[in-house]
Amino acid sequence: MLAWVIILLILGLVALFKGADLIVDHASSLGAKLRLSVVGVGLTVVALAAVLPELTVAVMASARQAGDLIIGNALGATIFKIGAVLGIAALFNPISIHKGTLRHEVPFFFLYAVVIYFLGYDLLLTRQDGLILVLLAAVFVWYSIHESHQSFVSKFGSGYVRSHSWPFIFLGLALVVLGAKLFVDSSLVLAAKFGLSEFLIGILIVAIGTSAPELATMILASARHKAEVGVGNIIGSNVLHIFLVLGLAALIQPIKIHPDLLIFDFPMVVFFAILVSLMLKTSQRLTRLEGAFLVAGYIMYFVYSIKFWG
Q: What stretches pass through the bilayer (predicted)?
């Protein structure tokens, strides 16, 4: 039994990386067809696909009233994407970011962390809070598509561009979603054998597992000097995870929040969002040193979580 779980875990990782490989290879061509910039593809198409695993987990957990798993997944995945994913990618190659992304999308990056902190301050995400979050997700997607389209047209004109990337993009997305499901399900089985708490499973195991698509995409994009796809993906998936995933879960079932989360975990989300925003705004890039700092910060959070919630 345990051997089969490990085999499925490995198969999930293989599917994740192969799917991410296809997405990175064909994102630029897809952007041309949609008349979106490459960053716009990362912020919308790729990001929406990347949150599908989290969305599936959140909806299922909400229906079963597993609020700790939902919140743990949301907070853990957010911190993992900012600290570990961006940090590791910057260690491969310093990451530059487009001025338009700094001006238009990075403010959303900061806004989502602050909004979720204040909505959760009363220790409950109500259905009204969920509606607010879903509406903010819709605004973010519309705004990102609009700005990306304007940027593309101003640079390349409005002519229709042919592309044969759709089949490869869909195949990549299918592999990513399938791989994430295999990875998450296998991880949960393994974690249960060690008697971990529901919140700890959400904040570490499920969060890392459902964020594996972004990690795979970002590493491959950085290694191929196409990090703008990955950066857009990280910003978009983080914003959509908090706004769309938590919003839909709260609409299904109000989510209770543990008081201890407001002491450290929620502030850590805000801290990482502010830190990365400042790093990007100062030099429009993430250096290897800054990447190492982000990874070290996530490792400290990882260790703290095991000690506090274990």
A: 6-24, 36-63, 69-94, 106-124, 166-184, 199-223, 235-255, 261-280, 292-309
